[in-house]
Automatic annotation (TrEMBL):
<dbReference type="InterPro" id="IPR007667">
    <property type="entry name" value="Hypoxia_induced_domain"/>
</dbReference>
<keyword id="KW-0812">Transmembrane</keyword>
<feature type="domain" description="HIG1">
    <location>
        <begin position="1"/>
        <end position="67"/>
    </location>
</feature>
<feature type="transmembrane region" description="Helical">
    <location>
        <begin position="6"/>
        <end position="25"/>
    </location>
</feature>
<dbReference type="Pfam" id="PF04588">
    <property type="entry name" value="HIG_1_N"/>
</dbReference>
<keyword id="KW-1133">Transmembrane helix</keyword>
<protein>
    <recommendedName>
        <fullName>HIG1 domain-containing protein</fullName>
    </recommendedName>
</protein>
<keyword id="KW-0472">Membrane</keyword>
<feature type="transmembrane region" description="Helical">
    <location>
        <begin position="46"/>
        <end position="64"/>
    </location>
</feature>
């Protein structure tokens, strides 16, 4: 289980980084792109952060409880 959780956690963290980068790009670009995507990207980032935290906690738990 630990072997699957770590790569999933890394993918989730990378996804957070990508969404954050797109959000910063939309902030710099401004205009209608920002108006249409800013709130959606923020919500997606928060969701992905929650998933990444849960996966990290599960990875730590699985590491400590493996035989």
């Amino acid at each position: 289980m630990r072997d699957i959780l770590l790569p999933l956690a890394l993918v989730a963290m990378f996804s957070v980084l990508v969404v954050l980068g797109i959000g910063l790009f939309s902030l710099v670009r401004g205009g209608t792109f920002r108006e249409n995507w800013s709130n959606k990207l923020m919500r997606l980032r928060v969701l992905l952060q929650a998933v990444a935290i849960v996966l990290l906690l599960l990875t730590v738990w699985a590491t400590q409880h493996s035989s």
